[in-house]
Amino acid sequence: MAIDIYQEEHRIFRSSLRKFLEKEVAPHIEEWEKAGMVPKEIWHKCGEQGFLCPWAEEEYGGFNAGFEYSVIINEEVARIGATCLGAGAHNDICAPYLRNFANKEQKAKWLPGCVSGHCITCIAMTEPNAGSDLQGIRTTAIKDGDSYVVNGQKIFISNGVSCNLAIVACSTNPKAVPPHKGLSILLIEDGTPGFTHDKKLDKLGLRGQDTAELVFEDCRVPAANILGEEGMAFPYMMENLQEERLVITIGAQASIEELLRQTIEYSKSRIAFRKPISKFQHNTFKIVECATEVELGRTFLDNLIADHIAGKDIVKKVSMAKWWITEMANRVAYHCLQLHGGYGFMEEYPVARAYRDTRANTIVGGTTEIMKVVIGRMMGL
After folding, report:
1. Which one-letter DSSP state was computed for residue 194?
2. What is the spatial distance between Cα 126 and Cα 233, in angstroms, rounded to a whole number?
3. Which of 2, 63, 118, 198 is the most exposed place for a label (fewest CB within 10 A)?
4. 293 catalytic residue (yes or no)
């Protein structure tokens, strides 16, 4: 049974966002893809329209919106193919650390900028030798008077070039046993001496969304910039991962729905041997198979979204959805490109970019393999 979580105000918001994206974002996607990042002005425009951190409390500029609004933003950005716009990462993966764990002074200092688009955030967990294994983090933050001195390196950081505020996981107690008990989170501002974040990485897909390597060399950060309590980074990160993985899955599902729609339209209009290629039985069967998988993904995802909004623990199911839907999206994207023939291999066709971009979803936020490890443990295997 289809689950409708939306009211009239949600539909009005979706319509407004769609019009904004079509006018302000869609015409520039190719330009931003080539540049490898979007201009900060578009972040400011998003903020002006209420499309950044809508969940923030009114005192910080938000409108205390429910998760439904985050779903709408991630779906519409995905459907228009604007993977270059890192709003989803900012809204629902990075800035929520401030919402959930920051004190009043920290919220007052940074949340208004997060809402307006003048404080772009990134989350810096991954290191060259510590990806899914967060206990392997080697970046240190050693207390020295009223400051922490940070040394280390982070890699594959979304919004890493454009960020104004980095949310950095580091070890404040390198001798802790087990190691995760020594991990803390520091809030490090752009411009802090010793903080370098200008190495833009050249990626296979998601080329318009800036991804950077961050380097900290004797970077002195005020002790007041610690997020929450010392030694609590690991449980904080685990708490946020349910929503992070759900958001990634939402984007993957919406993207593949749009790509399949475009492919069906193309298959009906492309003529070969005097008839539309959709009329060839093999192609008909392939489209039907893809449509079935996409529909299954949507049904599973909508139920998860409803459960998440209801406050239920969906860690196991969201891990299932994250691996299955992102892998499904890759399978369907493969067939969509194949149905386009030679045109599918041309960058001027959206299918080419979508094919490259969807590959990342099986890796970011926890790989397919890590999702299966999580599920297996929760099943007692």
Report:
1. T
2. 13
3. 2
4. no
- Per-residue pLDDT of 115-142, as tens digits, reads 999 999 999 999 998 777 777 899 999 9
3-state secondary structure of 59: helix
| Residue among 341, 333, 345 nearest 278 (CA) | 341
Together in a domain, 282 and 308:
yes
Pairing relationship of beta strands 275-276 and 271-272 according to DSSP bridges: antiparallel
Is residue 89 within 8 Å of 131, Cβ to Cβ? no
Catalytic residue among 127, 213, 243, 244: 244
Asked if 277 and 353 sit in the same domain, the reply is: yes
The tokens for 93 are 């993966």
Which residue range is the domain that position 278 belongs to?
235-378
The answer to whether residue 355 sits within a structural domain is yes
CA angle 169, 166, 365 (to 5 degrees): 60
Alpha carbon distances (Å) from 190 to 45, 120, 162, 243: 21, 10, 9, 26
Tokens, residue 11: 């539909």
Mean pLDDT (whole number) for 157-171: 96
Residue 28: CB atoms within 10 A of its CB come to 17
